[in-house]
Write a structure and sequence with these properties.
mainly alpha
């Protein structure tokens, strides 16, 4: 969990840029791809990541309007994600201080601190990025590394990826 707004913002900068990198490796055609017939498509997962940029912070008390997008192009996904991420950062900076982080909020029928809610937002993004990269690999898309190089990136560095 976060002990300062600055720590969250530093983490968020990397995490949000990583999400954009994943989005940028999608294609418009791939947005309808899914692995499980009953599962979400890549496009639905990407839109879900965007919607949580307003939904979770709104529940935490930030002055953001919940939105539930249904973008059908990668360009729109990337643009809206960046916009919503910037709005999230601005709302945090104008609304909260470090003293806000231990404040408790009703989240999904439980009591979470603001700090825990921000931590959950980061982990939620990582969780769905992981799903997306597995789906992307399954559908033949290039995958970019987030917490380390992807197979293709090892090759660009002249190294063999570990088996």
């Amino acid at each position: 969990m976060f002990r300062s707004i600055a720590d969250f913002l530093s983490t968020w900068k990397y995490e949000s840029e990583s999400t954009v990198k994943i989005f940028e490796h999608l294609t418009d055609e791939s947005l309808s791809a899914k692995v499980d017939p009953e599962g979400r498509t890549l496009g639905r997962l990407a839109n879900h990541l965007i919607e949580t940029l307003t939904e979770m912070p709104h529940k935490l008390g930030l002055p953001l309007t919940e939105e539930f997008p249904a973008h059908t192009t990668v360009a729109d996904l990337v643009a809206d994600y960046r916009k919503k991420s910037d709005e999230l950062v601005a709302a945090i900076n104008s609304t909260w201080t470090d003293a806000s982080l231990p404040e408790m909020r009703d989240m999904y029928g439980e009591q979470w601190s603001v700090s825990m809610g921000l931590h959950a937002l980061v982990l939620h993004q990582a969780h769905h990025r992981g799903q997306m990269t597995a789906m992307m690999r399954h559908h033949g898309l290039t995958v970019t590394g987030v917490y380390g190089p992807a197979r293709e990136e090892w090759a660009l560095m002249g190294m063999q990826p570990l088996p």
